[in-house]
Design a protein that fits this description.
heterodimer, A: 392 residues, mainly alpha, Cytochrome Bc1 Complex, Chain D, domain 2, two-stranded antiparallel sheet, 18 helices, 5 strands, globular, B: 262 residues, mainly beta, Porin, 10 strands
């Protein structure tokens, strides 16, 4: 019996030992340690991919807008490619050279500088001028309601767009082979491609797909306008509630909002969702200087027509228009107030009968309109680390 | 021929084995000791579509009423689950291996009108390791596999009741188990859902589980052929969410060493 007591004592000790909770130490890793060490030599990347999925505010969701799913590994690779100057012929230009994050991914030059001191022929479009790249652009997913790319709407997908820029002799000046070679020679791409595509094979198509995935992950819907619109409208975007004063707006901003809704929204979108028109001539010149969409379609009625962007972050994205002719928002407003030219393809919204409209804004109107346009600025976008230059 | 029904029963039950990459119980060894000097060694197998395992178990009584027990368990398994990445869900196939070696000490008592009841109480401790390998996703097609592995230790206390007859022996027991996950390496590329499951495992460690077992043995001196089942009775909801393997069935062949001497 003594032995039985001893056994019971032993079992009691076991129970006490088992009852002592100890910390479990699981190490969750995403990149293999050797891969992450290699990446860290060149890049400031977090130890796992950022979340690039956009969740739009209610007032934009109710317009039927939704961001397409983004593959975080591909977006991470795309981010590195986007900032990599090795993807240009002379090693001086990356996508980010003309699409600067602090400027809502636009450039502050009339036309951007390309390789070997060459310049492009049109103003760099702000990637941050839209609510979410992936909810806005691309006819591949959205059909005719998806917005095509470039000022002349000549590309249908983000992959087509970025390839065209990389291979444009005035921009990055690369051939398809150059692109593949440039990527293959950089050691940090091996693990990134493996993560994104399951193998480290570099192809031009994969490069374009990854960059597209990154830009598809860019979203800008945290402006003052958005927070007020979500607060005031919620999901109810069908009752013209946007005409009501927004409580967080100043009097000038609310007045400017009404001027915008009455004079600008019929093309640029009341709620900064998708534009109401895909292309328009806004009377910059009486005669065709740049064929615009007409240069792609060769249709006479498309001549001098250009993409109609939404106006998100417009405060940051000057100079304005396809040729960067206006340096300030005040100049832009002045154009619509008094400067519209009677081009044969002038948009009907800018005409009275056969004559160009003169909106004749008062000084107060102009000031209020500009005040409103500045509520479309999303400051978070400018510093969001998910979109920042990853290179050390 | 009289063995045939039991073999048939075993064949029916073996596919009921479920495997799980987080925890699978080994066969509970129900002591059939009745006197000092008795010793049994048994080898077990479990085999079905998703499991392939073997076990070695031994028990010995060096002193009256005192027993020593050792178990080794080695199970290979495969299965499928699902996980997600970038808000897309996908099927996730896995295969893995878990190994456990443990020892126990306890007491036993022979009682009953014909001394046919064998009551025992054992407590033990063991260490194990689990290694899971998740197979490549079909989209995008890849060659990479993702691994999760961890070391664990297990404490247990098991009261059991055996009944031994001339030709048959049957037994049942409860095993109160604490599975303590120690350290591990988890490739979180298996997706958020699977990573969350593993994190749940970590948060709930040590898992307090109750297991119930039965054994039915056919005795051909000195050999005993047994069919065994050990099932996890899952407790609190957070542990249920782990969807642990619920049942483990094995067929064992034992050798009563003390009967060899006779």
């Amino acid at each position: 019996m003594k032995k039985l007591h001893l056994a019971c004592l032993f079992l009691g000790t076991l129970i006490l030992a088992a009852a002592c909770k100890r910390d479990t130490d699981f190490n969750y890793y995403y990149y293999e340690p050797a891969d992450f060490a290699l990446l860290s030599q060149y890049l400031n990347l977090p130890d796992r991919p950022e979340n690039y999925q956009s969740t739009l505010p209610k007032h934009l969701q109710s317009l039927g807008l939704a961001a397409r799913p983004v593959d975080y590994d591909k977006a991470t690779l795309g981010r590195v490619l986007f900032y990599d100057k090795n993807l240009s012929k002379d090693g001086t230009i990356s996508c980010a050279s003309c699409h600067k994050q602090e400027l809502a991914f636009s450039d502050d030059k009339k036309v951007s500088a390309g390789v070997f001191g060459l310049t492009g022929d049109r103003n760099s479009i702000a990637l941050g001028s839209v609510l979410s790249f992936s909810a806005y652009y691309g006819t591949d997913l959205f059909g005719p309601s998806g917005v095509p790319f470039f000022w002349d709407n000549r590309a249908n997908t983000a992959a087509e767009q970025n390839l065209a820029s990389m291979t444009n002799p005035n921009e990055m000046g690369m051939s398809h082979t150059d692109i593949v070679n440039a990527v293959q020679t950089q050691p940090y791409y091996e693990p990134l491609f493996r993560m994104a595509f399951g193998s480290n094979q570099v192809t031009q198509a994969r490069v374009s797909e990854a960059i597209a995935e990154f830009v598809n992950g860019i979203g800008s819907y945290k402006s003052k306008f958005d927070s007020e619109a979500e607060k005031t409208l919620g999901y109810n975007t069908y009752s013209n509630l946007e005409r009501n004063n927004f409580s967080g707006f100043s009097a000038a901003e609310n007045r400017g909002k009404l001027i915008y809704l009455d004079n600008c929204a019929s093309c640029h979108s009341p709620l900064q969702g998708r534009p109401e028109k895909m292309k328009a001539n806004n009377g910059l010149d009486a005669a065709t200087v740049d064929a615009g969409v007409g240069g792609v379609t060769n249709q006479a009625n498309d001549m001098a027509q250009f993409k109609v962007p939404t106006l998100r972050n417009i405060e940051l994205t000057g100079p304005y228009m396809h040729d960067g002719r206006f340096a300030t928002l005040e100049e832009v407003v002045e154009h619509y107030s008094t400067g519209i030219q009677n081009h044969p393809n002038l948009s009907p919204e800018l005409k009275y009968g056969y004559q160009p409209k003169k909106l004749n804004f008062s000084a107060q109107d102009k000031s209020d309109l500009v005040a409103f346009l500045k509520t479309l600025t999303d400051q978070e976008l400018r510093t969001d680390k998910r979109y920042a230059n990853p290179f050390k | 021929m009289r063995l045939l029904p039991y073999i048939a029963l075993a064949a029916l039950l073996l596919p009921a084995c479920t495997s799980n990459r987080f925890y699978t119980p080994n066969t509970m060894q129900i002591p059939m000791l009745s006197e000092k000097g008795q010793a049994t060694v048994q080898v077990g197998i479990a085999k079905n579509k998703h499991n392939s395992g073997w076990e070695v178990q031994g028990i010995y009584s060096p002193l009256p009423h005192l027993g020593l027990m050792v178990n080794h368990f080695d199970l290979h398994y495969s299965g499928d689950t699902y996980s997600d990445f970038s808000q897309s869900f996908y099927a996730l196939e896995y295969e893995g291996q878990t190994r456990l070696t443990e020892g126990a000490v306890g007491g036993y008592l022979q009682t009953g009108p014909q001394k046919e009841y064998l009551i025992s109480l054992f407590g033990g401790f063991g260490k194990g390791r689990t290694e899971n390998r998740y197979l490549p996703q079909p989209d995008p097609p890849g060659t990479e596999t993702f691994n999760s592995s961890w070391n664990y230790q297990r404490w247990f206390i098991q009261p059991a009741l055996g009944m031994k007859y001339r030709r048959f022996q049957v037994g049942t027991g409860l095993r109160f188990v604490w599975v303590d996950y120690l350290n591990g390496d988890i490739n979180s590329r298996v997706g958020q859902v699977e990573t969350d499951r593993i994190a749940l495992l970590e948060q709930n460690s040590p898992l307090a589980l109750t297991e119930i077992a039965w054994t039915f043995g056919w005795h051909f001196r000195p050999v005993v052929i047994s069919l065994n089942s050990t099932a996890v009775v899952r407790g609190k909801n957070s542990i249920r969410d782990l969807n642990l393997a619920s049942n483990f069935v094995s067929l064992t062949v034992g050798l009563n060493l003390h009967e060899l001497k006779k």
